[in-house]
## 1
Amino acid sequence: MGLGFFTSFLILALFFRPFLCQQPNTDGFFVSDFLQKMGLSSSKGYNFSAPICTWQGVFCEKENVVGLVASGLGLSGLIPETSIGKLNKLEYLDLSNNKITALSSDFWSLGSLKALKLSSNQISEPLPNNIGNFGLLESLDLSSNNFSGTIPEAISSLLSLQVLKLDRNRFESRIPSGILNLHSLVSIDLSSNQLDGSLPDGFVAAFPKLKSLNLAGNGIRGRDSDFVGIKSMTYLNISRNLFHGSVIGVFQEPLEMIDLSQNQFQGHISQVHFNSSFNWSHLVYLDLSENHLSGEVFSNLHDAHNLKHLNLAYNRFSQQTFPEISRLSGLEYLNLSGTNLIGHILAEISEFPTLRTLDLSKNHLNGQIPLLSIKNLQVLDVSNNNLSGDIPVSLLEKLPWMEKFNFSYNNLTLCASEFSPETLQTAFIGSLNSCPIAANPDLFRRKSPQHRGLKLALALAISLVCLLVGLLFLAFGCRRKTRMWAVKQNSYKEEQIVSGPFSFQTDSTTWVADVKLSTSVPVVIFEKPLLNFTFADLLSATSHFDRGTLLAEGRFGPVYRGFLPGGIHVAVKVLVHGSTMTNQEAARELEHLGRIKHPNLVPLTGYCLAGDQRIAIYDYMENGNLQNLLHDLPLGVQTTEDWSTDTWEEDENDGIQNVGSEGLLTTWRFRHKIALGTARALAFLHHGCSPSIIHRDFKASSVYLDSNLEPRLSDFGLAKIFGNGLEDEIACGASGYVPPEFLQLESGSPKTLTPKSDVYGFGVVLFELITGKKPVEDDYPDEKEANLVTWVRGLVRKNQGTRAIDPKICGTGLETQMGEALKIGYLCTADLPLKRPSMQQIVGLLKDIEPVLHQ
Ligand SMILES: *[C@@H]1O[C@H](CO)[C@@H](O)[C@H](O)[C@H]1NC(C)=O
Ligand SMILES: *[C@@H]1O[C@H](CO)[C@@H](O)[C@H](O)[C@H]1NC(C)=O
Ligand SMILES: *[C@@H]1O[C@H](CO)[C@@H](O)[C@H](O)[C@H]1NC(C)=O
Ligand SMILES: *[C@@H]1O[C@H](CO)[C@@H](O)[C@H](O)[C@H]1NC(C)=O
Ligand SMILES: *[C@@H]1O[C@H](CO)[C@@H](O)[C@H](O)[C@H]1NC(C)=O
Ligand SMILES: *[C@@H]1O[C@H](CO)[C@@H](O)[C@H](O)[C@H]1NC(C)=O
Ligand SMILES: *[C@@H]1O[C@H](CO)[C@@H](O)[C@H](O)[C@H]1NC(C)=O
Ligand SMILES: *[C@@H]1O[C@H](CO)[C@@H](O)[C@H](O)[C@H]1NC(C)=O
Ligand SMILES: *[C@@H]1O[C@H](CO)[C@@H](O)[C@H](O)[C@H]1NC(C)=O
């Protein structure tokens, strides 16, 4: 009987519920009504008659809209009732950068919201207590609106809140004590409002996870002791408030950026010892300007050798010499204006290569201006001192290219007349008086060489640019070779400001992300559009794509493991082998893949286009892939170990909990579950998507197991992004998954992949699941040809299929079912593609032999 029986079986199994990738649903009405009533015309590229889930900025789960991003669309006016307020599954809403003036009353029933972004609109009303309805909210951004009144106490209900941004509104009176409930807060920004009063008691200590606090630009009264108990905070900004006391109490671990400017901090700071547990080398940004600090500048500053920004301007310091900051050579901004300095400018600042802004105005400095490193210098103010002598020629030559300079009210000699009369009248006030133009003919004659000097500088600058361009070309030419760029190590916000190009090496490849500034390359996370991740976050998530985070090196390129901020566990797949698609096409394709959801597919979480690298970001799969599970024993497990003795357990819901994955494979039930789930995934890609998706590279290592040990298929759709070269590659591969039509065709004949190529691959994986043997190069009893397919097909043909069953599968009475499963594999691996069943049919066949739970 065998095969005859099977063909009739197959015909019976020919009914299936068709599934579609996206379908219009009732949420579509609410969204289109909202967009149209808010003034969005279909001319903006929206096709209101297309299914909602295909619209740009709309994210669906099943048939519900869970995410809506309508930022910068010019939406204006009131949000109408019975529109987006009715999207009861909505989790992410971004309406930023529009002209919205008011919210609807049903807006407050969006109880599923996890992230809400309304920033940069014109909403002019108090925030109602209804905000407490959003109990699942993790991120709330209402910045740059016109919200007024108090911040409601009901905010205390937002227990999951991590990000709170209410800055640039007109909120007034005290910060409500309800905020103390929000223990998950990571970032608070209440800056630029009209808040006053003091901070609620225990404010800082209430937020153990708080990293960033900005209260700047309010009228809050407080003192240094308000900040005792900082735990995680690296950023503190209380600029422009009414804080007083000694700044010393504020310096606490692990602060890196401190802005206390424009407050009323006082005290003789030079005489007090700063808390010794504060590590000055972590400090990156310090602004104490416009307070009432007295005494001299503290000597601990010398240890802050990673400091980039230092502003001590306008305090009440006693007369002092230039502070000892010679180790702070990474400074980019130095402002010591009005700090009562006498004596000479510290000579060492001429060796600060990154200095961009130097303000030494309003002091009593004398002597000459040192030879500054002018490479990055853009702002220089030495006005109102007693400096004398010539301005260094290199500096004079740089001035025309600088943003701002001021030499007024000194005793400098300036005889160059390249400057326009206006410049001379504003930037050199009081310095010209002493220029002995008339008195000293030598100085007068220096005019023309200096003029040439400027031209020379211009010529030099141009040739430098050419040289740079040339070098850049050279660099690009080399980068396909194994050349490594040193990844700049930078302590300031370490990964965030590093600039590229970046080069990374694995055992088999070197890949380069040709991006200039890692923070300027966005990472798109489909379901969390409000988290503005950048390539810099990928760098830090993977420790600069460190080999230690490498999970695998697949056909497409290396795969890394990482945690994005917020604890998002991801697998980062770099598609290194070049792509024929443009950035736009690749982005469109990846967005499309991101919308394809099925319980048996590994979800594509997001992507990043870094230079010409396409980087796909997937949910991390906790339990590895089928290839490892079947063929590679976990580390530390002996090959001789008897798997059948491993314990495993199932609960009522068919979920398998916390068992060593090796043990799972001892049941046919589990192996069948993997086969069926994988078949469902392929059937969905082939028949449920339009246009249908051919996986093209299906194999055991494409099947992953998630945290519930559900099988999930990965890498679907990537081949397309790769272009057609891959098909030749597949044909060349000897992996054991290549369908015979690819091996047999004469070279030169077209090799077209069809869904039936995937079906063949599925058959091979099914054989692997049942026999526990690898597709090639394993031990196949009584078989000379080293190939799983020919071996099993031979046995099935002789009706001896059960001899191929993996002896590690325990339990008896299931041999018949496993024999039938082998026959399904037999059909799938038919030589002629036409004879292979479709994946829909295979799902039906597998369901019919599903083992029932009986033990
Ligand atoms: C809009 O979508 C509908 C349904 O998908 C389609 O038939 C129609 O051609 C689309 N119109 C445009 C202008 O793209
Ligand atoms: C903000 O609200 C105030 C008072 O309601 C109003 O005078 C002002 O024009 C509003 N500003 C904007 C930009 O809407
Ligand atoms: C502090 O906040 C104010 C207002 O938002 C801003 O202008 C300033 O740049 C901030 N300081 C730092 C160090 O970010
Ligand atoms: C120093 O700071 C730690 C915690 O940051 C605190 O426990 C300790 O009391 C402080 N010591 C002084 C002298 O301020
Ligand atoms: C400060 O931090 C740096 C780098 O994190 C570390 O090397 C150094 O030992 C620390 N210093 C103190 C005094 O803790
Ligand atoms: C230096 O600091 C003072 C006080 O904050 C400020 O007014 C001035 O603009 C700063 N100078 C520069 C060049 O930024
Ligand atoms: C300015 O410096 C000169 C010496 O260079 C000195 O004689 C003079 O007293 C100084 N003037 C002031 C106001 O400090
Ligand atoms: C200006 O500098 C010259 C020397 O360069 C000095 O002779 C003169 O006294 C200085 N004038 C003032 C007002 O400091
Ligand atoms: C330079 O400083 C002087 C004195 O502070 C001031 O009057 C003048 O406007 C400044 N010029 C420029 C260009 O900033």
Note: The first strand starts at residue 58 and ends at 61.
## 2
Amino acid sequence: MKKSISTFLKQPIKDSINRSANPSVTRASTILFNSMQELVQHEKRIKANKKISYYSYGRYGSSTTIELENILKELEKAYHVFLTGTGFGGVALAIMSLCRPGDEILVSDNVYGPTKEISEELVNEFNINAKFYDPDNFNDLQNKITKKTKMILVENPGSNTFEFQDLSKIVRLAKKKNILTFLDNTWGTPLYLKPLKLGFDLSFTSATKYFSGHSDAMGGSLAVNKKVFKKVMFFYKLSGYRMSADEAYLIIRGLRTLDVRLKKHYENTLVVINFLKKQKKIKEILYPYKPSSKSYKLWKKYYSGANGLFSIVVKSKKKSSVVKFVNSLELFGIGYSWGGFESLALLQDLRDDTKYTKTRRYLRFGKDEHIVRLHIGLEDPNDLVQDLKKSLRHIK
Ligand SMILES: *Cc1c(COP(=O)(O)O)cnc(C)c1O
């Protein structure tokens, strides 16, 4: 029987020892073998990438992390999935596995702050040159490719400003020039977009966000195709990147309800946006909700769903009044990250280079246009609307 992904995510994991519907949390460093021969055989099977139910040493994972790998392999339609202790570990794993001195990487200007920082600062020290392209201009990307370009790093939609790019166009160009492609798919999740099926070589999701969904676990998932598997595995084993069994368990539990939660985040978001779009103080809503917009068309072309994360552009000569707006929200927490059950708000100054956000090279917003990122949680959306309504009054 062919099962839908929703059914797949809700199936019990049969644990032959405990008979529990959920996998056991197996914390392990040493794994015991019955003989030296068995140990050697097992190592050979791992090297040949045969399906295994346990690794030979805890650094590479345990039965709990293998369960999560298998779930994500199915969700991503991937050759293999590497799990890391935080989301960002997955980004670092991709770059450090595949880029070497003399290489260039092409990075979308709207990537997540630390992705920008590793590209701009850290890899430079290893003589890897990063160039940043305008996510709204495909020609800019095309023109920046050189013989040295090793990898194109895309995040779709981009952090904070939510530009959508024409993904297949990028993949086609990269394949023609023999360049690797990486997509940060944390916003869409592989439930709504499968980057490897589109032709990307690497598909990354921060499991900290919607996968876990409860703001209490951290992790990363880097799904790869066969082409890059060996190189990434080599670095993975030697870098010590690893996800703990406890985090893997929490992320498996989160994934059970990924589809229902995302649906609700989306429904709530539409209620909130319906209110926000009528507010004069809000100049623009950076979310694919208007069918005539470019971002809506590109979203529709590739994604089968959306979620609760977007930004609003507030026009004000008084930044302090926008700060007051955010501070006075009662139902929105102020803090980093997103994808949990709760609503969050954050004023993002994309020109401030003193923070980890890093300055944008391509920003179409004026100095008196302020970007407030909102994550719409699972609360009653009408309460959220009332909260926003009351706080918007502070904006001068
Ligand atoms: C949060 C985030 C990451 C990093 O994930 P962490 O688990 O916080 O390390 C990477 N990319 C995007 C788009 C994110 O939002």
Note: The longest strand covers residues 149-155.
